[in-house]
Design goal:
about 50% helix, globular, alpha+beta, six-stranded mixed β-sheet
Length: about 170
C-alpha cells in the first residue's frame, strides 16, 4: 500500500526502502544473496562508471555547462523482480546501475540542454532506440521530468543514462 503511494507521490527513496524491507523479510535468502553480490561488484562498478563518464564530462566541460554525474544502483527489490520476471540469474541482469547527469541551467534552457547532453552521450556510445524515454517534452503524472536512454559502452555493456536538471 505505502510503496505504490510513495512512488505516485515521487518519493522514490521511501518507495525503494519500503520495497527492499519487504523483500528482506519476505525472502531474506534472496535479499542477502543479491546484497552480497552487489557488495562484491561495487569496486568494479565504480571503476567502470568513472571510465564511462570521462568523455561525457570532457564534452560537458567544453560547453561550460554546470552539471553533476552520479551513479544509482538498482534496488535489491528491483533486481529480484527482474530476475524472477525474466527467469535469469543475477549475473545476467545488465542494468544494475544507471548514470544520472544532472544539469544546472536556467529554466528556459532546460529542454535544449538535456537534448544537447543526450547528443553528447550518443556521440560517444551507441544508443538502443527502443530504450529512449522522453519525460522532458511531456512530464510524468507525478511531475517527473527526465530523459532516459540505454547505450552500449565501449566494453559492450548496456548502461542506462538519465539526463535531467537540478530543478
Amino acid at each position: 500500500l505505502y510503496a505504490p503511494l510513495a512512488h505516485r507521490l515521487g518519493l522514490y527513496e521511501i518507495k525503494t526502502e519500503l520495497e527492499d524491507l519487504y523483500l528482506k523479510y519476505y525472502d531474506g535468502e534472496l535479499y542477502e544473496q543479491i546484497a552480497s553480490k552487489l557488495n562484491k561488484t561495487k569496486e568494479v562498478r565504480e571503476r567502470f562508471i568513472s571510465i564511462f563518464s570521462q568523455p561525457i564530462i570532457k564534452d560537458l566541460d567544453h560547453l561550460n555547462l554546470k552539471f553533476q554525474i552520479k551513479a544509482r544502483t538498482k534496488s535489491i527489490y528491483s533486481i529480484a523482480n527482474k530476475m524472477k520476471k525474466q527467469e535469469i540469474p543475477f549475473e545476467q541482469v545488465y542494468d544494475l546501475f544507471a548514470i544520472r547527469i544532472i544539469l544546472d541551467v536556467p529554466d528556459d534552457e532546460e529542454k535544449a540542454a538535456c537534448w544537447q547532453t543526450y547528443s553528447i552521450v550518443t556521440d560517444h556510445f551507441l544508443p538502443n532506440p527502443q530504450r529512449l524515454r522522453d519525460w522532458i517534452s511531456t512530464a510524468k503524472a507525478n511531475g517527473y521530468e527526465s530523459l532516459h536512454t540505454t547505450v552500449m559502452s565501449k566494453t559492450g555493456k548496456w548502461v542506462e543514462v538519465q539526463i535531467r536538471t537540478k530543478r
